[in-house]
Amino acid sequence: ELCTIFSNSVTNGGKTTLAEKLKNMLPNCDIISQDDFFKPESEVETDERGFKLYDVLDALYMDEMVTSIRNWIKNPASSGVVTEEPQNTCDNVKNVYILIVEGFLLYNYEPLNELWNRRYFLTLPYEECKRRRSTRVYQPADTPGYFDGHVWPMYLKYKNELEENASMQVDYLDGTKSQEELLSYVYSDIIQELNKLRE
């Protein structure tokens, strides 16, 4: 049995940390990260202001990402996923393979839409998002005005598109909540989803 979880987020929303913690709690769990599919800087477009356009799908090898996900779904046991059972695993979720796909542009990409079991979207208010972004080191480094000129507007555009899509079932999570609270909620929700798959 397979369960595919999509974790999406505004930049620095906490999705990677959440995904890693879930991996340690769930049986036969693996992660595919969208960040691993960025094109090299030389292939990323630059706009008229000189901003590198990283927060768009064209900055990523999305075909390769979809292939990786499909290959995992076809044969999760050969993916190198650790099959040791985490402590305190419920008996009814053993013999299940779980894939968490985490990234920042997942739900507006049509070829991925049929693959999900659950979708989560971590949100942050502007000031907190900007503060967290300023504490991270990026390669290449953010240029002055990059957050306000490109990153935040792209996030708002993407989030608005999601909210306007009535058929898209997304669980919006408050990224300002503690990691423990978010982890507890998502873990419980995944266990419920696994129970539904078993029925």
List the helices and strands and how they pair.
Layout: E1 2-9, H1 15-25, E2 29-33, H2 62-74, E3 97-103, E4 118-123, H3 126-134, H4 146-164, E5 171-174, H5 179-198
Parallel strand pairs: 1-3, 1-4, 2-3, 4-5
Helix pairs in contact: 1-5
In short:
By secondary structure, the protein is of the alpha/beta class. It contains five helices and five strands.
Q: What would CATH call the architecture?
A: 3-Layer(aba) Sandwich
- CATH fold topology: Rossmann fold
Biggest beta-sheet profile: 5 strands, parallel
Lateral strand order in the biggest sheet: 2-3-1-4-5
The helix count comes to: 5
Structural class: alpha/beta
Organism: Chaetorhynchus papuensis
Pfam family, one: AAA_18
GO molecular function: ATP binding; metal ion binding; nicotinate riboside kinase activity; ribosylnicotinamide kinase activity
Protein name: NRK1 kinase
List the keywords.
5-stranded parallel β-sheet; single chain; globular; 199 residues; alpha/beta; Rossmann fold; 5 helices; 36% helix
Descriptive overview:
It holds the Pfam family AAA_18. Keywords: ATP-binding, Kinase, Magnesium, Metal-binding, Nucleotide-binding, Pyridine nucleotide biosynthesis, Transferase. Belongs to the uridine kinase family. NRK subfamily. With 199 residues, the protein is an alpha/beta fold. It has a single domain (10-78, 95-198), classed as Rossmann fold, CATH 3.40.50.300. The protein contains five helices and five strands. Strands 2-3-1-4-5 form a five-stranded parallel beta sheet, with helices on both faces. Strand 2 (29-33), helix 2 and strand 3 form a beta-alpha-beta unit. Helix 1 packs across helix 5 (179-198). It is globular, with a radius of gyration of 17 Å. The termini are close together.
